[in-house]
Write a structure and sequence with these properties.
72 residues, mainly alpha, 2 helices, 0% strand, elongated
């Protein structure tokens, strides 16, 4: 029983450590996409807009994963 609790804790730790990387990657890629679109269409607002959307998407995915872990 104690070993099972350690395995679950280790699995949760691995999931939570990957969440920071996932969030950073989503925001970085959103910013990069916005910058690229601004250059392609000679606009100056897409970088900020897509970066904000990426931040909200990353936050939503984190809340979704945490809620899913809590249900187990």
């Amino acid at each position: 029983m104690a070993q099972e609790g350690k395995n679950i804790a280790l699995k949760n730790w691995a999931v939570f450590s990957g969440i920071g990387l996932q969030m950073g990657l989503i925001i970085f890629l959103g910013n990069y996409l916005g910058k690229w679109l601004d250059e392609q269409f000679t606009l100056n607002f897409l970088e900020e807009l897509i970066t904000i959307i990426a931040v909200f998407l990353a936050m939503f995915l984190i809340v979704y994963r945490v809620n899913r872990i809590n249900k187990k």
